[in-house]
Design goal:
By secondary structure, the chain is of the alpha+beta class. It has 4 helices and 4 strands. The termini are close together.
Length: about 120
Amino acid sequence: MFDEEVVQMIGEYGYVTTLNFLVYGQLELKDADMLSVGLIPKMMLICEEQAPFILLVNYIDEDNARMMGGYQGTKVSFIFGGQVPHPEELSKHIGEGIDFLRFKFDYLGVGKWEHGV
């Protein structure tokens, strides 16, 4: 289920913190790259350092949307090694970036993944 890089990050930091969004549309990889590049200066301001992170993009097709009782779109997860300072403030900035790209979205919240979960 986990990407190999995420498993390595969990091994290194003990756990990861995730900020999760559901984007109602097909977010292209160039858009995802723009979101991750735009996050770096915000992290420097908010966290006073750049925390290591991975961006996972999962597409939800019609069949999966029906199974989950939801809608088609793109699940976007920013995965940070260990604890990320001020996750709600970072999520606000990510949301502004998604909005800038002219996508509707829902913020699904902050999560934590660790060994055995």
